[in-house]
């Protein structure tokens, strides 16, 4: 058999148009709330000088990764719900899968860095400022994206 797979058929939540519009509205609302909530965290951390500790720097980066993770899949799902076009090209599917795994693994590493930050703050409080200096935080976050 020499046939090639060129696209995948997305089996949605429903074939009824009314339900698709309801799901589109709910998913769009949830996606917008995720974006606005994470943007609010980023703006708050960046504008308030009292929130310049490593914990808030890492939280800000986690919010950015959350925006990226949500933005990998949600827009395509919203387009499929609104347009009714239930197929995705093989290349598009592979790109979406790659970015989802890339951002997901970056999030896992960032959560590990955040756990290390809290461990250092609790178990080694006298050494915390030396271990989690600004340069070290930037290096750890950069390593999450590498």
TrEMBL record:
Matching InterPro entries: GPCR_Rhodpsn, GPCR_Rhodpsn_7TM, Olfact_rcpt, Olfactory_Receptors
Superkingdom of this protein's organism: Eukaryota
SUPFAM superfamilies reported for this sequence: Family A G protein-coupled receptor-like (SSF81321)
Protein topology in the membrane: Multi-pass membrane protein
Keywords linked to the UniProt accession: G-protein coupled receptor, Membrane, Receptor, Transducer, Transmembrane, Transmembrane helix
PANTHER family attached to this UniProt entry: OLFACTORY RECEPTOR
Similarity-based family: Belongs to the G-protein coupled receptor 1 family.
Protein name: OR4M1 protein
Species of provenance: Setophaga kirtlandii
């Amino acid at each position: 058999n020499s046939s090639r797979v060129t696209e995948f058929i997305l089996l949605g939540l429903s074939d009824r148009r009314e339900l698709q519009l309801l799901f589109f509205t709910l998913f769009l609302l949830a996606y917008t709330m995720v974006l606005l909530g994470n943007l609010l965290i980023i703006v708050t951390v960046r504008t308030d000088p009292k929130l310049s500790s490593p914990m808030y720097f890492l939280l800000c980066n986690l919010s950015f990764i959350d925006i990226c993770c949500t933005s990998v899949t949600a827009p395509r799902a919203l387009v499929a719900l609104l347009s009714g076009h239930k197929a995705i090209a093989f290349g598009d599917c592979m790109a979406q899968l790659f970015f989802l795994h890339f951002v997901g693994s970056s999030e896992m590493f960032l959560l590990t860095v955040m756990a290390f930050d809290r461990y250092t703050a609790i178990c080694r409080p006298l050494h915390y400022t030396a271990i989690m200096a600004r340069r070290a935080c930037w290096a750890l976050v950069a390593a999450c994206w590498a």
